[in-house]
Amino acid sequence: MRLARLKKPTGHNARAMRDVLGYFVRHPRAADTLDGIVRFRLLEELLQRSLDETEAALEQLVAGGLLRREATPGPRVLYRLAHERRDEALRTLRALTPSASGREG
Questions:
Q1: Range of the domain at 28
Q2: How many independent structural domains does the chain possess?
Q3: Is residue 40 part of a domain?
Q4: In this structure, are residues 30 and 23 in contact, taking their beta carbons and an 8 Å threshold?
């Protein structure tokens, strides 16, 4: 099998190419303008990625004891700060926030 001859994408371009191509592969009858693809089609991809990343972050924060997961009568779950660990949550937040110099830290 031969792959299409593409210049090797990097960084954001690689992600954009993957998202656009992925959309058209999953929706082979789709046809749209650049504006339409950006506004409507890729929004679906962005929302799904955001949902996946947020779910993973919530699971890590619950596992670390900084957040609590609370069941509700319905299918939804609530998350809230573990108030007794607020100081640790603040230290963790500072550690996760990039410094003013642009370095992670």
A1: 10-55
A2: 2
A3: yes
A4: yes
2 domain residue, yes or no: no
Residue 101 dihedral angles phi and psi, to the nearest 5°: -80, -5
pLDDT band at 67 (very low <50, low <70, confident <90, very high): very high
pLDDT of residue 2 exceeding 70: no
Q: How far apart are CA 1 and CA 3, in angstroms?
A: 7
pLDDT at site 105: 41
Question: Is 4 among the domain residues?
Answer: no
**Residue 96 belongs to a domain:** yes
Q: Which two tokens stand for residue 67?
A: 């957040």
Task: Check residue 101 and give its pLDDT.
Answer: 52
Read off the amino acid at residue 48. Answer: Q
- pLDDT-derived band at 49, boundaries 50, 70, 90: confident
Q: What is the DSSP string of 40-87?
A: IIHHHHHHHHHHHHHHHHHHHHHHTTSEEEEE-SSS-EEEEE-GGGHH
Q: Tell me: do 72 and 95 sit in the same domain.
A: yes
